[in-house]
Amino acid sequence: MKLSCILIVEDDVIIAKAFAHYLIQKGYENIKIARTFSQAIACINEFSIDIALLDINLNEKNSGIDLAKILVKQENIPFVFISSHFDDETIERARATHPNGFLTKPINKDTLYTTLEMISLNSRDADDVLIIKDGYSTIRLDIRKILFIEADHVYVNIYLENKNAPILVRNSLQNLEQLIHSSDFIKIHRKYLIHTKKVEKYNSSKVFINGTELPIGTTRKKNALKLLGSL
Predict the structure, then answer these.
(1) Is residue 94 scored above 90 in pLDDT?
(2) With contact defined as beta carbons under 8 Å apart, do 149 and 193 qualify?
(3) How many Cα atoms occupy the beta-carbon half-sphere of 127 within 13 Å?
(4) Contact present, 163 and 198 (Cβ < 8 Å)
(5) DSSP 3-state assignment of 14?
(6) How far apart are CA 111 and CA 25, in angstroms?
(7) Which H/E stretch holds residue 184?
(8) What are phi and psi of 98, to 5 degrees?
(9) Quick check: helix, strand or coil at residue 13?
(10) Is residue 102 packed enough to be buried (19+ CB in 10 Å), middle (13-18) or exposed (0-12)?
(11) Does the first or last residue of the chain, that is N or C, have fewer Cβ atoms within 10 Å of its Cβ?
(12) Is the dihedral of CA 169, 50, 74, 94 positive or negative?
């Protein structure tokens, strides 16, 4: 999917225009901006939108999550949530709409571009392949060979079978979680997304993959142990 038309739904006009200016510089020439829920609906009805950047908090009755539900139900348009803060409750409500990614303000422009490029690339490939951008290079990864993925500030480390060093990617763990279309991956900690079929052993507080000990987060323990126990 080539992203020909991008809709930015953001009530802060300065932020919206900054996003638009940067994306135009990167070659995305057709950018639409909506500051309100109603303006966003009008853009969706009038233009052929390829992807939407949705601010969750629009400071009005309807939120970005409400708009996402319409995108899913009526238009099947991919979308990325943007917000100044993603608490657990908001993430769960947002995740129920099956977004293509999450971006936290202040948003790094390179991360924004990489996120859009990876969504575009992965939309046209097989479910067992993850395509990532590494600088100017595009890498196709067999997700069956991924051991686990680790968040590292504004980067993620992707650990693979038979590789001594991880692949470093400028993106978020949340975004890669959305791009991997496999129930074999679960998030056991805010920093770790694991491939359950690669788990060698586990207990109530940690899992072991390829000899590496990974912690299970307190808030994810119940769900993680339930899923691991069903394997």
Answers:
(1) no
(2) yes
(3) 5
(4) no
(5) helix
(6) 15
(7) none
(8) 60, 60
(9) helix
(10) buried
(11) C
(12) positive
Task: Give the 3-state DSSP-derived string for 110-179, with helices as H, strands as E and coil as C.
Answer: HHHHHHHHHHHHHCCCCCCEEEEEECCEEEEEEHHHEEEEEEECCEEEEEECCCCCCEEECCCHHHHHHH
Q: Which of 209, 213, 205, 181 has the alpha carbon at shortest distance from 195?
A: 209
CA-nearest of 19, 177, 178 to 107 is 19
Peptide bond into 215 cis (omega under 30): no
Tokens of 137: 């290079």
Q: Are 84 and 156 in contact (CB under 8 A)?
A: no
Number of residues that this document lists for the chain: 231
Q: Which tens digits make up the pLDDT trace of 109-150?
A: 888 888 888 888 886 556 788 988 776 788 889 999 999 999
What is the pLDDT at residue 126?
60
